[in-house]
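Take a minute with the sequence and fold tokens given here and flag any structure token that looks odd. Thanks in advance.
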Amino acid sequence: MTQLDRRHFLGSGLFAAAAATIITPERALAGASPAGWSLAVADVDADVPEETLQLVHGKVPANCDVTLYRNGPAKFRRGTGTSGHWFDGDGLVRKFRVGDGKAHLTARFVDTPKRRLETKLDAIVQPGFGSSRRDGAVVNGPDDTNAANTSVLMSGGQLLALWEGGSPAIVDPETLETRGFKTFRRDLKQMPFLAHPRVEPDGTVWNLGGNGKGTFVWKLNPDGSLGKAEMLDVGRASYFHDFTATARHLIIVLQPWVQEGFKFPLSTAMAWKPELGTRILVIDKDDLSKKRAYELPAFSFFHLADGWEESDGTIRFDGCLEENPTFGQIAASALLRGEHIKAPSPMLTQIVLHPDGKADMKTTRISAEFPATDRRRAGQARRFTTHVAGYRQTPFPHAIATWDWKTGRDDKFDFGSHQLVEEFLFVPTGSGERDGWLIGTTLNLKERKTELHLIDAGRVAEGPLASWRASLPLPLTFHGTIA
């Protein structure tokens, strides 16, 4: 890619000033003085030094030795202002270490230009997904607004804190100290790198970058070095937070939530156009010019699970699909005001792409989010999808479950209405798809503390084998990884 192409892709219009939005103290009050589920979007004012968690339930398996990294927004308010969207808070990387029968927690903010500037000004000024540009903002490129708050990736021995509109931030896996932004090649500086890369069993990483009709395709070798960097014309400027892949193909789902221009907040530059339907592109990993398209009725989504391809060419993958993008458009912004705007529930659904060009969807009728699988089987046939569930009167889930695509049953444990449940990840202990543990976190509203849980992946309904409690509550995260 030439330097000119890169500048065109980044688009100077994206970083033009947008009208400032004034957030009054009254509007920020619910989040500033959190009660009930508002703890999920409360502020953390400083890094969290290492602490030993309290074992409050069960017994730790003797062979348990795992580190869970999680990332999510944890600073939304400064001075009299607040971020305009849940997705725009400063990223706080948390490290949960389980070994020798004990669990430890430490957490550290990603040291980004955005965070440094807003700390200096004691004000929220940088624009984002749902935030306007305000007086004092400095926006010369994507990484000036990079919150590094969505996920983490271990690649080539480096821990990367991911956003979706800019570079990965390098984080020391031991100390969680920020080492700056990752530049894979000088002419690719600040190119977007999505927060949902697909990792093959050998450690090869595939990812996309940015939204619009021109999308960037990344391939990282198992050692973390750059393997491929190419532009791909997808034909529609759809918003996609995630994509999926099989062993041979990349799968890009183009929902009819379409970018119509470049302005801040970014969410206001997109329009929901259900009449366009949803288009799915299947792209050959070895030759990105080889692609075929499938058409389905309109749906919106944030998260997909890994896909696979059967011997006859049929492709299957699942995701948590919504009727429309109300949550991303307005409901996630309302959370910071202490408001719960009901949005269509995401439903766990399998999408089937047939060799004859037809496609269909098979819904489980299960309200679910954050689908996770056995990462050793990425791109291969599988039977199970782990997900959060149990939505009640709060915007957040209360249960963890594993759906069995063979039997059509959900193995579920409900933590109760006082617990807000985050994504759980699979930790293998044997060769079978359920031979292992699920490790994840919850926010205990009754105790006002964050908790860590370990569950037998084959017996989810029996609840945690062991649970630990931190000394403080941390706001909810989005995604994590294990090491």
In short: The longest strand covers residues 419-428.
